[in-house]
Amino acid sequence: MVLLATNPKVTIPDQTLARALLPRLVIFVTNTEPEDPESARALVAQTLCQYATGVSKDHTAIAMALVIPALLARATSEGEGGGQGSIGVYGETSARLLELASANQVAFRGVVGSMSDGQKAFMEEVIRSGRQSGVARKSDEDEERPTIALKMNFGG
Q1: Above 80 in pLDDT, residue 49?
Q2: How many CA within 13 A on the CB side of residue 23?
Q3: CB within 8 A of 83, min separation 6: which ones?
Q4: I want to staple 103 with a disulfide (CB 3.0 to 4.6 A). Which of 18, 22, 53, 129 is the partner?
Q5: Pick from 30, 112, 124: which is nearest to 70 by CA?
Q6: Extents of the domains making up the chain
Q7: For 98-118, how does the pLDDT look when each residue is reduced to its tens digit (9 = 90+)?
């Protein structure tokens, strides 16, 4: 896909195509009115996150400023248990947000810092809920592995 091209020979037409696709993909992820039996929204959301983490460092904050609100809008409209699969939309969104945070903490904090208190609280709820749904599905083998604690302070 054009958005995930890491080849240094990305052409001007590739960049133009990516610029045309990006807003349409964001709209697709956030417009949850049409049915999504193939779970394409989850795949497109993952692609957008990979795009945001793969752009040049100068553009990472801009890409995250588009992707993070789109992820949260999807979580808002579909609700905690929405979507296909065993972990639901909150679980998927939690995983995507944590990917973005680990890819570039400075850009992630910048985007989160510009959110309202209500948006930050909702994001915390999504991450907590997503982590809890993942914890509930751990096997005995997973419990023996070390875990990383997540500090949930997104405040400004």
Answers
A1: yes
A2: 3
A3: 36, 39, 41, 42, 89, 92
A4: 53
A5: 30
A6: 11-31+39-136
A7: 999 999 999 999 999 999 999
